[in-house]
Amino acid sequence: MAGGGTGGHVMPLLAVARELKADGHQSVFIGTRAGFEAKLVPPAGFPLEFIEIGGLNRVGLVRTLRSLAQLPFSVLRSRRLLDKYQPAAVFSSGGYAAGPVVLAALWKRSPLIVMEPNAMPGLTNRKIGRFVHRALLNFPAAASFFPPGKSEITGLPVRPEFFKIPPKPRDAKLTILITGGSQGSRTLNEAARGSWSYFRENHVPVRFIHQTGTAAHAALAQKFAENGMDGEVSPFIDMPAAFARADLVICCGGAGALAELAAAGKPSILVPLPTAADEHQLRNAEAFQKTGASLLVLDREMDGGRLFEEVETLRTHPELLHRMGERARAFAHPHAARRAANVLEEAIAY
What is the model's pTM? Predict the structure, then answer.
């Protein structure tokens, strides 16, 4: 299991590893000490081996040079780990931690299956696309980066709780969930704070569930209370529970967040992170927007006034909200982890 750095890379690997474990297979993870894999994999009960590598894409000259210097050693280390464990196949979810392992797998000619969560594949998958045994995709647009017949749309593994969320009846107040991921989004935090006076002065019946991240929480929570808004401001939240309570979700364009929107069938306003490598969040958001599953607002255009306008448009057109939710659900793939496990087992047999 190769991939890491962010939770969005690690969680799909864990989901597939659990499916493989149920079938009697053993999964070994390779990642970095600085990535989320170091926090998430050991508690899940899977072995984790470490390599030293950093990012290469849009990370600045100093970090790029450091990562390039680390690359030969991390590939050799990965090769030794593959020699040690003799895996029947290698599964990659991308991210900088996957690069050396993928190169070692190609060196050893091990069957390589990659999961590409974004509409614009990451650097590693773009470079090695023509060599993969199979590519499992979340968006059809990514298929052009892999050989014909080597890819399929499987979706991204999502926690089962999101698929179990029932349709939410509308009540007198529109409940808005704002989340920028575990670290929070500065743009969404500032836009939310700027919108409160608009909602209050126009007597708009809304309720907020706002996940801010740790750094901005105290200041935003104080301002929220001073404005007398209905709802809650928290550094972290139980995301499936928050989704169940929400009529509308405002978030960035990460593949994991969009997969959760699809699983829950929630309408959304997407504000892609402009610093995401290769604008992959923008490409993801555009795919949702084109089908009518979401509204797309560029990061530089989102402020308090724009947030108020977009929410008010949707609040006063409940049929549009309903239609957006239904179209989001069309992106859902409830058996993504199971299909990935099956593909790995097929590669072993092959």
Answer: 0.86
